[in-house]
Design goal:
- This protein folds into 3 domains: 246 residues, no CATH class; 122 residues, no CATH class; 89 residues.
- The protein is globular.
- Strand 1 and strand 2 form a beta hairpin.
- By secondary structure, it is mainly α.
- It is built from 18 helices and 8 strands.
- It starts with a helix and ends with a strand.
Length: 494
Amino acid sequence: MHRKSSCSKEVKLRSALTIRNKLVNLYLFAFFAGLTFILYYTSLNNFYVLDDFSGLRAASEGSLFVNFHFIPVPLLAYRILYLLFGESPIPVRVLSYLLNALMCVGMFRFSFRFLSIFLKDVTDERKLIISFYASLLFCVHFIHVETIIYYSELHEMFYSLFYLYGLYFYLLFRSGSRSRNLVFVYLFYMFCILSKETAPTFIACIFLSELLLFKSSAKDFMKKYYPLFFITIGFALIRYFFFSSLELLSMPASFISVIQETIKNYIFSFTAFIVSLDFIFIKDIYRSNGSASIATLRDLAQRYPFAIAGITASFIVYVIILRKFSLLKISLVVFSVVVISSFSWLAGYERYLFLPSVGFCLLLSIYLFNNAWLNTFNKMPLFIIIAGIIVYNVYSLKDKESHWITASKISEKTVTRILDLTRELPPRSIVYFKGLPGEYKSAWILRFGISEIPGLFLKRNDMNFYYIYQKPEHNVNEENIYVYDYDMDKIYKE
């Protein structure tokens, strides 16, 4: 009788905890969804830029393949929204805002679980405070602007979301919870790799966690987590046999160049977590100097001294945070390094740093709330620093967002002008575009996707648009060949 009563109380306690956790998740989601909307609502109706036109075409055709990428999960989402709402970009951005809110909730729960493993002498109340601030910092971080408001970035958001929740369920499983959590690890990894092809770094995160945190052997790792490899191999086979199109990205000239480029990109990636930079301008400086590191630094000092100041300031911040090494801090740094590794030799796009910033946000939050000096004097130094970080991030976020709004207006004006000038061109016309604007203060405009415009907006499949660099050297035996010069705002026949 006593045992039945005890079991009944335990069931009621679990039920109460489950309800409380669901309510906490709901409140957090509502808070972060509202905050994301407040931060980004002015970008809801931004016009298409860069390769958005390719994504829109894939949505209109129901394709699972776009720009040589096999990403069925986000493309299915695009397709559903296209069927429901047509070409309007607003529903896609609303979905992005909601995914960001889910990401913040995942950040909160992942952080608390992570801290529970490492900081056993810290109260749950302190862990909750650290976790909430980490998720708040993630929500307002300026590095996420490109990911959240760029129409073509659903794949980055789905990938990051599934990746983070997969790691969360891995930590749940490893903390002694039910073994069924391992099924969720595999499930989220499967959705992750179907969202972005760089997902196999997830396996590296699990492997390093097993070796460094839980002292397992490589053999034990293979025995326990072999389904991760089956999922990866299955994806690779489907990718190869059914969606074999692949474009090899241009690599640096030598292995030494790859190493130099990787080091530079890691430096700027970790700097970008702390200081708001113009990534595209930095990337252009990279390219103008090739693999010459000294020349790149000299050029940066002359043309973009703020970047040098930002690197120096960031270096000091990391030295302060990491001066007392711990397995916890090392784990978060390694997480960011591993996630960045899949694109470390070609970094230069802020959207790639959406997921890696999870490690930085948690690392900074742990340092702030566990620093003894900052928590003295009625905690005023701590509150001042926290408020300063939030204000700087929000200011930088809105500044970057304004650049994307301007870029979208330039894109819309340019595309409208192109449509007006080409609408009445005869069948089988070919138009080459010269001098189209590429970017505005690190926000993309019209570098790619121009070839999709006739079919999308003119509903004409008897006309082809190309960039001027795609024009063949020798004359093509075609009658209706035109060139549109953006700077002259003129279209002429050749």
